Amino acid sequence: QVQLVESGGGLVQAGGSLRLSCAASGSIFAINDMGWYRQAPGKQRELVATITRSGNTNYPDSRKGRFTISRDNAKNTAYLQMNNLKPEDTAVYYCNADIISTARSIVRIWGQGTQVTVSS
Fold first, then answer.
1. Contacts of 96 (CB under 8 A, 6+ apart)
2. Cα-only R_g, the chain
């Protein structure tokens, strides 16, 4: 069994920064793509950023420049550095990952989410 646990969310003023972490644990052989998504109240979940195992990143145009995704494969952890935060960034942030278990099965799992609130 594998799981993802996000951390690092909280309340920050507009213009501030936060760094989210997503740690995978359990019977892990390897992790392929990892990603961050967010969901604001009343809105659909949307992509924030993804990163491959080799470190190639992808961002929607609206997130380029303020958000940076990275990962530490040795720690099975992904990070999301968010700078110059705006009130519209307020949402629950979710991590997901494509994990190859020690049994060689491939599963896509989600974390429980971490709340980010940006005050104006």
1. 4, 34, 35, 37, 108, 109, 110, 111
2. 14
Residue 15: how many other CB atoms lie within 10 Å: 11
pLDDT tens across 82-117, in order? 999 999 999 999 999 999 999 999 999 999 999 999
Would you state the torsion angle of the CA atoms of residues 115, 19, 68, 28, taken in this order, to the nearest 10 degrees? -80
Would you place residue 62 in the very low, low, confident or very high pLDDT band (cuts 50, 70, 90)? confident
For residues 95 and 86, give the distance between their C-alpha atoms in angstroms, rounded to a whole number. 20
Give the mean pLDDT of the chain. 95
Q: DSSP labels for the chain?
A: -EEEEEE--EEEETT--EEEEEEEEESEEEEEEEEEEEE-TTS--EEEEEE-TT--EE--GGGTTTEEEEEEGGGTEEEEEE-S--GGG-EEEEEEEEEEETTS-EEEEE---EEEEEE-
What is residue 52's predicted lDDT score, i.e. its pLDDT? 98
